[in-house]
Each structure stands twice: as C-alpha cells, then as structure tokens.
Write a structure and sequence with these properties.
Helix content: 55-70%
Distance between the termini: 118 Å
Strand order of the largest sheet: 5-4-3-6-7
Strand content: 5-15%
Radius of gyration: 34 Å
Number of helices: 37
Low-confidence stretches: 555-559, 657-706
Number of strands: 9
Shape: globular
Largest sheet: 5 strands, mixed
Structural class: alpha/beta
Number of domains: 4
Mean pLDDT: 82
Length: 723
C-alpha cells in the first residue's frame, strides 16, 4: 500500500482524449475537467459547488464516472438530450429504457401474435385464444391487451411502422403513379384499393397504399376519396407535383373521357398519362372474338356443367374417381372455368377436360341412367363440333395464356408488355398458316381418344385460322397505336429494343425523348431538371451504355442488362436529367392486376363471419399482410417504440390500471385515458350473417364471376342435349 501511495504521489497524470468518446459534455481547460451540461444547468449554490462546474483537477477516469452518477448530471443529461433530439424519438427511447425487460418480453409475445394474425388472415378472436394458450403454456404475457380490442391496437402500431417505408419512398421518388380499382363487398360498402408505383435508382416497385370506402362509386366521390387518402398520409405535395400516371380497368367511372376519375385528375394535370389496364384489354379482346359463337357457349355449358355436377355430388365424384382407376389413368377432375376473368383459368379447365376425357365419357354414360344432368352432359361431350372447337380453342389459348401471365407479372413495365404483345401477334399469325393435322384426324375419324363422336348437322371444321384472325383484329383495336406520347415512348426503356449497332443507335429514341420532355416539361422542371440538356445527355448515355456493357447486347438477346446496373455505372457521370426521364417512363404502370389480387386478399380478411370489421382495422390488416415482414423475420422493436409513445407524446402505461367498479371484475384492457379513445373507435365485433362476396363494375367491364349461374346451366344442358 505504501509503495502504491508513493507511486501515486510521484506520478504525473494527464488528460486522455479517448475519455471524451461518448461524452460530448466533457471539456478540458487549463488542467481542469469541466462538464458543460452541468455548468449550464447549475442554478442553486449547491449545484455550483460541483467539482465539474468549478473544475476538477483529479485527472482520473474514476472521477468522471463518479460525476456521471450525480443527480445534477442526470438532470442535465435529460435536459440536453430532449433539446438536441426529436421529442418523439427521445421519449420513445426513454420509455424503452424505463420499460423493464419482463414487461418488454410480455409485449414482444403479444406483438408477434398480432403480427401472425395479420399474416395468416386470422380473426382477432383467434388472438384471444392464442393468448390463453400462451398462459396455459406457462408464458407470462400480463393481463393487458389480451382481447380482440387490444389486438386491434397492437395491429395499428405494426401497420403504422410497416407503411412508413412506402411513404418515405414516395417522398424520395421524383415521380409516381397509382392504380385504383373499386368493388362492393358483401356488406354493400364500395371499397377502393390503391397501389402506388415508383422508380428509384433503376428499381421499380408496386406497393399497397390503402383500402377504404368512398361515399359512392361515382368518379367525383372516388376522386375525393383518393385526395383524402394521400393527404391523410402527409403526401399532399407528392400528390400535387409528382403524380404522372394512373391505371385502372375500363370502367366508365375510371376511364370516362368526360367525367371519369382520369378526366378529373387531368383537370389540374393535363400531362397525366391515363392507362387502361393491358390485362383487362386482353380479356376483352378474347370476349369480343367468341361472344357471338354458339359452339363456344355450348362448350362453356359443358365445362361449367361438369364442374357443378362433380362438385355438388360426392357420389358422382367418387364414381368418376373409380372410372379413372379402372382405366389406370391419373385422376384429373374438372376445374372451375369462371370465378376470375383471367385466361389461364379457362385454359386449365380445357386441359383438365381433355386429360380426363375418356374417364368422364365413361362415367357420364354409366350415370346417365339415374341422373338427367349426366345424360345431358354425356350428349354434349359426344358432340364432335364441340370437341373440335375446344381442340381449336386450346391451340389458340396457349399464346394468349403466356401473354396474360406476362401482363400479370409484378413490376411489369410498359416496354416489356409491348414486346410480349408483338410476339403474341406474330404467333397468332403463324397459327393461321399451320395445318393442325391432329385436329384434322379427329374430324376424319370422328373419334377422339378412342371415343366415338357425333356430328349433328354441318361439321364445324378447323376454326383456328378464323379465331386467330379475329383475335389479331380485336387485339389491334383494343391496343391502338395512336396512344399517349409517353406510352408510345415505352420501347426506348426496354434494352431488347435497342439496336446493337452504333450506326442505328445514333437516332434511336431521340424523337420519343423530345416528345416526353415536351409533355412533362413542367413536372421535370419541378425536380430541377434542365430540359434543354436531356436530348444531348440521351445521345451520350446510349454510347456509354454500349461501351460499358457490350457483352449484354451481343451475347444475351433476352436482355440481362437492367437499369439498376446502368444507374450504378453512370450515376456520377452527369446524366441526372436523362435518368429522371427514364424514371418517369418506368414509373408508368401497365396493369392494375395487383388491385384485383388485393381484393382477393381482402376477401380472406373480411369474411362472412367478420362482416362488421372496422375499415381502419381492415386497412391495417392489409398493410401488414402485403407489406410486412415474414413471421420469422419480423422486427418488433419499431412497432413497440411507436406503441410506447401516445400520439400526444406521453408515455403509455403498459400494465395500466384497474377501473373502480362495484360490478364483478371483467376482462378489461388496461390502458390509459388516451388509449380509451382509440379503444372506443375500434368496433371489431366479428359476428354477422352475410351474403356471398361479389364485385361489380360498369357496363363495359364487370368484375362479377364470368361463370354462368348453376340453374341457368341446368336449363342449357337440357336445351343442348335435346338438340
């Protein structure tokens, strides 16, 4: 001890700079250490006597640590932290610090349960059962936020933080478009679902934004609802200055030239591009081709009738399975033709019919003795004209199904859609010239897969050239060339359309770029874009891309080159203006398929037993379901941080309090007064006896199932079988 004492007396201590790390308040002047925060905070004489206010001359790390534990320093730390940081963030962090680990673990379990409920489209009442199951397992989850209303509160916090990246992306993007579609749910409310499309640094994203109820299905009310949606999310400036495109189906209240939603948006944005969904247009082109064909109607009665027959009768369904076993064939049951309008469903139904044709014929003929429906369907299935027509239809459907799947692809650009459309027209033209010998053999032998066919009256013959020719004409009329200049310029952003020769590349896309700049000049200038330099930058950009990526143009005709890689290569080379034009073109949507998928997800969340689901809760469920992380990767910390601070900035009570009441104790949600306001607004009683879901649209297009009603099918079976 004496040696250590002598060592300390003879040692010359010095101030170490690394002591200042994570201590912004620590200062060293004239051989003394000072605390700048305590110096400014000290008011009383006792505070001013503090060593770090007057100056501490004992240069030890231990001296600093002792000062950090004093009450004066704790007060000054709180004061200066709140003055230098965002209030909400500071309070959230402070609440988390004050939150005991046990309480945090309880919240974590309940937040993960609420997240699971949304991702799996479960009822809020399932949340209550899972909480009871957790308690039965011995998990301590507390007594607050363990009922359906508590689940809704937790869900709203998860949805809030989940939607923030979408809002931030919209604010950082130079341009955006949105797609909108409407449908009436089974409660009669008109639901409008909105997706936004942005292009940032070469990456394109179609993301869910909101689902809500408009006052009515009129364009004016939908327009008001759209404005309210963007404004409520703090996107007023983005909606007014960055909106460049809009896409929907062909409903009159959406695409009407005089008073549709597109026309209302163009009143203040004459440059806006309005796009009729390409996938819907393809479906309408096919309907235009077959709508007058009596054989097509008869064929649809056969396919739909088979589906209803085996779906509604377990006895007949088992008989069909036995027929497959007797023939030693793989079981392929008839599938639904309608339900949605996408062509792949029709192709799947036709394919299933032909794969199981022998078994279906055998079973229908054996069951016709006891079932009039089976007898009628057996006669239609033996009709040579119907079978020949379906074989021809199957040939034509293949390129259409490929195109339809492409148009339904996520993040599809107009350029990609245009390339696939051109390829489909080429394939249809080739089908007109082919001989189709397999169909000709069926006509000549009057047999298909060994089963005899009867041709009543005149033989239909091979109608592939007729169907293909009419499809080409209808597709051409539904996809006109005299479209908006921005849509016409879509080909320049697809590298598949770029010539790989420097001579041909010189003038490629120049006129299209000029047209786009002229149409969107005001929008481009709002982003500090120099319109006069765009064309010259376009010329330089083409040459630079060919020089930096020669292999992609010569060796990969499929086009592996992407705009993301181009952005990384030229982002710092002075091409900011032309890259903004490319972002504008890539932000234009080609389809509103995501909206149709969104309604399918909505029907999983809002079922007949959840008819009274609050629209805000439904929107929160949709946000978490479509934008949220997977169950395994869910990061709950941001949601808990948001939950711990109330909208007014107060700390939320986790354990809460018990209400004074003379009545027997009930299962209350233990929340503070501010939470009770949110509690009252959440009406999530899931009882209700409601009708089947359906969608409706305008005269031109309808979202109702294309499937014929079962009673009508039965009448048509009798009619066609008697023929």
């Amino acid at each position: 001890m004496e040696a250590k004492k002598r060592y300390e007396e003879n040692r010359e201590r010095s101030f170490q700079e690394h002591w200042c790390k994570d201590r912004p308040w620590l200062q060293y002047k004239n051989g003394n250490m000072f605390c700048s925060w305590c110096t400014d905070t000290a008011v009383t004489p006792k505070d001013k006597l503090c060593n770090f206010v007057e100056g501490a001359n004992v240069l030890k790390l231990e001296t600093i640590k002792v000062h950090e534990k004093t009450k004066l320093h704790e007060r000054s730390t709180v004061k200066f932290s709140s003055s230098t940081q965002d209030v909400t963030e500071t309070k959230a962090d402070r609440c988390l610090i004050q939150l005991k680990k046990a309480d945090y673990d309880k919240l974590a379990i309940k937040f993960r349960t609420a997240h699971y409920i949304a991702k799996r489209n479960k009822s809020f009442r399932d949340y209550v059962d899972i909480c009871q199951l957790d308690k039965a397992k011995g998990l301590d989850i507390g007594e607050s936020y363990v009922n359906d209303k508590g689940a809704a509160i937790l869900m709203s916090n998860i949805a809030h933080v989940t939607l923030q990246p979408v809002i931030e992306r919209l604010k950082s993007a130079n341009f955006f478009s949105f797609t909108c579609d409407g449908s009436a749910d089974f409660t009669g409310e008109d639901m409008e679902i909105v997706y936004v499309r942005t292009a940032v640094k070469g990456g394109v994203a179609d993301q869910f934004l909101n689902i809500g109820c408009a006052q009515s299905a009129t364009s004016a009310d939908i327009h008001s609802h759209i404005i309210k949606t963007f404004f409520s999310l703090g996107l007023e400036e983005e909606f007014e200055k960055k909106l460049v495109g809009f896409c929907s189906d062909g409903a009159a209240n959406m695409q009407g030239s005089k008073s549709g939603l597109a026309a209302l948006l163009k009143h203040t944005r004459p440059y806006l591009v309005s796009i009729h969904c390409l996938a819907h247009r393809l479906e309408l082109s096919f309907k235009d081709t077959v709508k007058k064909s009596k054989v097509y109607e008869k064929a649809m009665v056969l396919l739909i009738g088979l589906y209803y027959l085996y779906r509604k009768s377990p006895k007949l369904k088992n008989g069909l399975k036995e027929s497959f076993l007797a023939l030693k064939q793989k079981q392929v049951l008839p599938t639904r033709v309608g339900g949605t309008r996408w062509l792949p469903h029709l192709d799947k139904a036709v394919d299933a019919f032909f794969k199981g044709y022998q078994a279906i014929r055998h079973h229908l003929e054996s069951a016709s003795h006891t079932s009039p429906k089976a007898e009628g369907l057996a006669k239609i299935a033996a009709d040579g004209n119907v079978i020949t027509f379906l074989l021809c239809l199957k040939v034509v459907l293949y390129p259409l199904v490929t195109l339809s799947k492409t148009l339904q692809r996520e993040n599809l650009t107009l350029a990609d859609a245009n390339s696939q459309m051109s390829a489909t027209r080429t394939v249809l033209s080739q089908l007109k010239e082919e001989k189709h010998t397999s169909i000709q053999e069926v006509l000549e032998s009057a047999q298909y897969k060994g089963e005899k066919l009867k041709f009543a009256g005149h033989k239909t013959g091979i109608v592939v050239p007729t169907i293909a020719g009419e499809l080409i004409d209808n597709i051409t009329s539904r996809f006109p060339d005299n479209v908006d200049v921005a849509v016409a310029a879509k080909y320049i952003i697809n590298f598949k359309n770029w010539p790989n020769c420097a001579t041909h590349l010189k003038d490629f896309g120049t006129d299209a770029i000029r047209a786009v700049v002229e149409q969107f000049r005001s929008v481009l200038e709002d982003t500090d874009c120099d319109s006069d330099r765009i064309v010259s930058q376009w010329q330089l950009l083409k040459a630079l891309i060919i020089e930096k990526f020669p292999k992609e143009f010569t060796d990969t005709p499929e086009g592996q080159l992407s705009w993301t890689s181009v952005y990384k290569a030229v982002s710092d080379s002075g091409f900011d203006d032309i890259l903004k034009v490319i972002e504008l073109l890539r932000s234009l949507p080609s389809t509103s398929v995501r909206n149709e998928c969104g309604f399918s997800i909505m029907k999983l969340a809002k079922t007949k037993r959840r008819g009274r689901l609050n629209i805000n809760s439904l929107n929160n469920l949709m946000v978490v379901n479509q934008l949220g992380q997977s169950i395994a990767e869910f990061d709950l910390r941001p949601a808990i941080e948001n939950f711990m601070v109330t909208p007014s900035g107060r700390q939320r009570r986790v354990q809460g309090y018990k209400r004074k009441s003379s009545a027997p104790e009930a299962d209350y949600i233990h929340i503070d007064e501010e939470d009770e306001v949110q509690h009252a607004e959440l009406d999530i009683n899931e009882d209700g006896l409601l009708a089947e879901c359906y969608n409706s649209d305008d005269e031109e297009e309808s979202d109702e199932d294309d499937e014929i009603d079962e009673d009508h099918v039965n009448k048509l079976i009798c009619l066609y079988s008697s023929d």
